[in-house]
Amino acid sequence: MRIQFNINKKITINEKDQSYLRSLISGSLEVYESDIVELKVHLSDENEKRTASNAMQCLLDTEVKNGIQPLPVSCKAENIVLAILIALDKLTFSLEAMFMRLKNPKISFMTPQKLKLLATIPVLQLQV
Questions:
Q1: Nearest alpha carbon to residue 112 among 65, 71, 51, 61
Q2: How many helices (H) and strands (E) does the chain have?
Q3: I need a labelling partner for 93 at 20 to 30 A (CA). Which of 16, 32, 34, 115 fits?
Q4: CB neighbours of residue 103 within 10 Å
Q5: Confidence at residue 52, expressed as pLDDT on a 0 to 100 scale
Q6: What number of other Cβ atoms are within 10 A of residue 56's Cβ?
Q7: Nearest C-alpha neighbor of 81 from the set 2, 9, 1, 11
Q8: What is the mean pLDDT of residues 41-53?
Q9: Is 40 helix (H, G, I), strand (E, B) or coil?
């Protein structure tokens, strides 16, 4: 599985941070490592003035083997790591549902349209 980072100019991530994020992503998707060809991680800062929360966005664009349609998921959060973790949870759920459906075509609870809709659902803001 190749992991490629595309980072907005407003975000500064050094090689050490990329290595940490790469291991975090690889560990989370270890079960699907043989099924994923490439994972593009798009990181951006959506807030110019830094006044609003949930300004950091992570878009994971996943290319899966066997010509299966790419799976994009995204998340906005208050920091990059949290955005990546939540996007990874969404991606894991989508991959699990997709492979379950491929193994048993009678299961129709997750259509591609529902998976796309799931990827756009905003995450609840938890306050600690």
A1: 71
A2: 3, 4
A3: 16
A4: 8
A5: 56
A6: 23
A7: 11
A8: 74
A9: strand
Helix pair angle (80-103, 15-28), 10° resolution: 30
Q: Are 9 and 3 in contact (CB under 8 A)?
A: no
In whole numbers, what is the pLDDT of the chain averaged over residues? 82
pLDDT tens figures, 5-32: 998 888 888 889 889 999 999 999 999 9
Distance CA 54, CA 24 (A): 21
Q: Which amino acid is at 117?
A: L
Residue 40 has pLDDT above 90, yes or no: yes
Two structure tokens written together for 97 = 């549902």
The structure tokens listed for 110 are: 């997750």
Specify the DSSP class assigned to residue 69. P
What token pair was written down for 120? 């756009």
